[in-house]
Amino acid sequence: MNILDMLQDYCRRAPRKLTVLQLLEIIKNNHILVDDGCFVVFATAFDEVRILCPYAPKGKSIVPLERKLADLAKERGFKRLSLITDRPEAVGRKFPDYKPVGTLFEKRLD
Fold it and tell me: pTM here?
């Protein structure tokens, strides 16, 4: 699977309705780590790395790539790795070392 296939599959399966061009814009303005058919789009701010778009195809796990990102962030002096999700139960299963730290409020503008 090439990167374009991965981006298309992410857009098809993601809860947010994004086009590949919108996802490419997010990547352009942030960072991407790709390995073994998976990717993580992430942003850095202050002492934190924020996972924006994690992707693993069906049958693969994002966990090894998250560990690589955590190691990279730690090497670079970042103190926290965070993600915002609309699937907290899945995050709790896959990443038991992540803890809820706040509440996100959202205002719909459409």
Answer: 0.87
